[in-house]
């Protein structure tokens, strides 16, 4: 654009402007095309041509001036050029003469050169021959080495030699016959090696399958030993804690490292596998061999997992699980050391196959079992298998879930077995106090279950407050707790104490308590037996805390957690209720026995003419029986139960005396008969007071004593002997002296009361003033009671 504007200005401004602008463009080396087009555009090509001619003339003048300025130098350069031409001619003649002289000298040298070339050719042929011989010798040596390694069974060096021959030697063998022979033999040798290592590998497959069970048994044995050491350590710890809790002494805990075993004991030979895998990899068949290995091991696993229906699983479960354990220990070693022979996904597939089959077998076998001990045997070995395989990273959760799923079924069988044992123990018990003659008997039946009343060793023979069924039941419960913990431990449940406690409650409530109630409600019990059962239940009720502590101890639960409130067994309250039921049954039996003596009141002469100074005969029988009853109860029952037995018996006697006055068979009685009953009560009250204090029942701080249980009969007799029986209707006196008497009963009894014997014409003869006043007061009481009713 600048050039166009400039040219346009030049053309428009005249000749002088065109000349100056065109000269500047030519000097600057610019393109003149735009100027030319512009000149033709404005119709002035002549001006442009004229300017160009002027510029050419100017340049010619400048050239002439420049030549004039450098004319002398140019002449000198031409002269120098002519001197160079003369020197060149001289050099040319010199070269020609030298060439002739050189040709004369070279003729003799050419002859010697021909001889040299001939010798060089001979040397070349000899060198090639030596090279060929060396190549053949090298290949021959390699072949000899290969044959020697083949004869020694060293296949890997053979393959390395063959590979060397193929890559570096074969193409350089000059002899075609030798090369063809070697090319033909190499595949044959490789095929032979492949067959040989396959044969060795197949032999290993047969051998390792038969060895797998021993490997599994050894590994499971190591797990069993480790578990035993762990249990022994826990037992020592529990013993130390128990002794420390009781303040026996101080203990130092040490770590026993003498029995730590290494996994190196599990040694088995995998060299045929490594060799076969490596050889096949070298042959280029690595993937094919991996597939071959996996298929064969899978077939072996499926064969190992087959169980004959005719074979007893209880007898075959250990070899079965040991075979599986050995199989997967071998596969774990192969996975870790055989560098790609077995992949993790393939091993996982093998394990899933085994897990599916084992769970199916276990579910089927558990569904057929009806004995708790069989569950324990299989569970024990199954958990050992799980612990063994867990160390190698196998997922064992499905196996443990099988145990959890059959937990309730196992405990049902265990409860049924304990039910039979408890029923047998109760049925074989005579319910008499155990007599322990030796110290070992005391330790076995008392100390073993913490049933001793004190820590002081008693004198022998020792009479226990319980019968033989109590230690038998404690053994059964202890065995149940141990079996329950044994089944639940080392399983899928980490904190199984609550489960053990639940089934322990179930045993004590649904089995033991029901058996005790059935025994209580049987019709064949005597009073001593019922009393002994009552005492037994009290002992078992106290033993519940020991049972719970034993369960917590075996489960590894600290004692402080068991001692917390609301953490006890529900069975304790249930046994407390059964203890009350046993007491009620005992009371019924005692009352029935007392009724046999109290029925002798029917033999009393209720209208006797003279009052006796002694108690009636039946009362002597009653007191003798009560003395025997309280003496036996004092030896067997705790104070609370002894108190309840005494209160029940005396209350029943009091009720029986009142009932005798109310009996329809008794139409009337007189004062002398009442005096006899008063004598009976005095004997009974004296006995009650003496036994209440001699038995130490005052320690219970009860508001009601034995004597207070006779209060109804005493108040009735006092009323009948009173000189003013009409005071019964006085509220104040009645509350103070006759508070427990019912006015209806009093009215019925008073209607039968006759102050003196009925004799013809004798009713008014011997009546003194006191009798007359008593009779009037009694009549007044009768009238008021009739009006009140």
TrEMBL record:
It is found in: Cytoplasm, Cytosol. The keyword Coiled coil applies. Residues 398-752 form the Exocyst complex subunit EXOC6/Sec15 C-terminal domain. One of its GO terms (biological process) is intracellular protein transport. It comes from the Eukaryota. Residues 51-220 form the Exocyst complex component EXOC6/Sec15 N-terminal domain. One of its GO terms (cellular component) is membrane. It holds the Pfam family Sec15_C. Keywords: Coiled coil, Cytoplasm, Exocytosis, Transport. Belongs to the SEC15 family. Component of the exocyst complex involved in the docking of exocytic vesicles with fusion sites on the plasma membrane during regulated or polarized secretion. Involved in polarized cell growth and organ morphogenesis. During cytokinesis, involved in cell plate initiation, cell plate maturation and formation of new primary cell wall. This is Exocyst complex component. The lineage of its organism: Eukaryota, Viridiplantae, Streptophyta, Embryophyta, Tracheophyta. The gene is LOC109721369.
